[in-house]
Amino acid sequence: MCCFSVMLQAQETGTEKYLWPVEGKNAGEDILYRPQDYVDDEHNFDKLFITAEKGTNIVCPCDGVVLWVGYDCNLSMNVSSSYSMEGTFKDGVDAYKEDVRKKGIDPVYLSVGVYFRTTDGRNIKIGGLDTGDKKYITGQKLKRGEVLGKIHYCYKKIPQRCIMLSVETKSGKPSDPMAPFGLKSTFKPPVVQQPKQRLTRAEATADYRQLATGVKEIYPSLDDFMSEAEYDAFVEGEIAKIPESISLVDFARLVMDFNHKIHDSHMWFSYGINTERHKNAKIPPIWFGKVDGGVKIIWTTAKYRDYLCREVARVNGRPVDSICVEMEKYFNPIYDADVQSVKELESIYLPRYYYTMAEDAQKNNQTVFTFADGEELTLPLEDRKIISQYERETSQNQETPPQLSHKSEGNFYSTIVNDSTAYMRLKTFALMDTELEQMLTFIGQLQADGMENLIIDLRNNLGGHVHVLYKLVEAVMDEPIMREGGYQKVNAHTFSGTLNLSGEPMFNEFKQVDGKKGLYLYNNDDDESEVTDSIRRDAYKGRIYVLINEGSASASTIFAGIMKRNKRGYIVGRETKTAYHRMNAEKFADIQLTNSMFKCHMPLVRLVSDEFVSDEFPYGRGVIPHLTIPLSYKEIKVDNQIVYKKTLELIANGIYLKDEAEQSAECQLLTHIKDNGMYLLIVLLPVMLLGCFRIYKCKRNRADRVSM
């Protein structure tokens, strides 16, 4: 290849050429297989296999940050089993070799893979490493030319020592592994198959049955929504609605109705199409939404900002209440069980349903708003692309500190608010090891400094890694977690018809239980998640305030639940997105419907960490705060830190959990009153005194009027 061609390839990467990963070799040397080659009978779509002699160092091609490191056992070109990285390379091989043999793989092909994010936004995976005594942590910075390890073996069909290198976009899509090194590439981007625009009744029925059967086979909590007989009747009723020919959009709406019936914060549907009926729908320059118990204008362009917060009575002559009821069938909120907060948030955004789904919304190319005070306002509909940026009402108060905003950068942020209070925010529990250490160091310093209060902000935190969750629990609790019962449940050991499961038996430790469907694993004293063997005597002992809302899910729900259940934290905000008593997560199955190509991402494991039910922990609900602050127009439009500021007020006023001594004293007082026959008198006395005062006041007013 000529020099100009090599330079052109380098320019296309938008950065300097990557360093060839085999130390001492030039770019392109000793490639065994390129994209489009076949390894035995397998097509190699996006990987480079590069060989070298035993003992050769493999180096990092460019600067980056470690995202994951672990052992890989490649079952096929695109399917592998992964194991966590602990100890030396030999320690891992010894620990996992028997499991690898059970999979039919020679343990010599068990190797370390390093997955890292480059400074130019790509993700690179290099497998086939012997890392010796070297250890990695996520978040660790890598330098161009740094030795990652020595070459090992990586795939059962390749007898030579080699590494396997692949490149992905930031979103995880396969990318060219050759152009970044300045090589003429054989990589071909994946061809996106276009779905049909219409389905026959037979095609749509087959897809619907495929979905319904998959959910019945895989999803572990179906009986929380309905019995098996009710489910079968529902499915048949929905199938009966399918006409002889149906558009992909209308079939998507049918699947959405299924999703409304079987809803879960860990179950996601992907349609790959615009599901709006009016794809080119226009919108007015003011938007309405349901908030503060009414329907109000919540967004406008600058021209109409005087209408912000005005209450709306009718839209196009229709009462807004009837519009709200009709639009609810198009809601597709992702929430658990009977959680209410997510539905309340969703109801605010009615226009996105009304103007794309309701037939009358696009009539006459205009919208007539009738306000509660009788005023009418007729506005033309405009292209969404023209007025896509709506002007928000700005607060007259000082600006919200960026570190307290959910838009702030970084997954972990901490600060000292004042002499008695510290604040930390977790955007996610998927912290890198470096971020986890930063968090634990911060909390440890608070205890050392005697800081009285700690605010832990989990608003809009969708969850993450379980080990991070329990590290945080350990850092703030010096007693074992209170729990009653608890178990995990799956439907089977193997599952069919999925995109991502190989058919290999899973959940071998789960057992059948007489009289119950599915397979179970019950909590016991040896369960690490109980945090009984790792209690930190240096744990933070000050007061804890946990902020949650409708965006707090999964691990956030578990943490808030543990804090409330153990009377270790005062919870402020709104109900969590995930249910406390039932969370379906951990491992997932992906199903793609054959004809429509819609996808469903479905959890396999039902996780019940605590079976305690009470008024404070109602079944089917998320974690309910001690102090609920309803979502309001003011919080949406004017001040998004109302929950945070209210928490500071609670701290300033000394409002916290009642300790056992206070509760015991109150109980003893009531018992003493009852035992002495005074209970009725104590209860009625304030009422009697208030009545006497009102009678006196009434007579006095009459006397005043007579004297006048």
Can you give a write-up of this model?
With 708 residues, the protein is an alpha+beta fold. Among the domains are: 3-181, Glucose Permease (Domain IIA), CATH 2.70.70.10; 282-383, Pdz3 Domain (Roll), CATH 2.30.42.10; 407-482 and 531-578 and 622-657, 2-enoyl-CoA Hydratase, Chain A, domain 1 (Alpha-Beta Complex); 661-707. It is built from 15 helices and 35 strands. The strands form eight sheets. Strands 1, 4, 5, 6, 7, 8, 9, 10, 11, 12 and 13 form an eleven-stranded antiparallel beta sheet that branches. Strands 16, 28, 29, 30, 33 and 34 form a six-stranded antiparallel beta sheet that branches. Helix 9 (433-449) links the parallel strand 26 and strand 27 (453-457). Helix 9 (433-449) runs parallel beside helix 10 (466-476) and helix 10 (466-476) packs parallel to helix 11. The longest helix has 29 residues, at 679-707. The radius of gyration is 31 Å and the shape is globular. The termini are far apart.
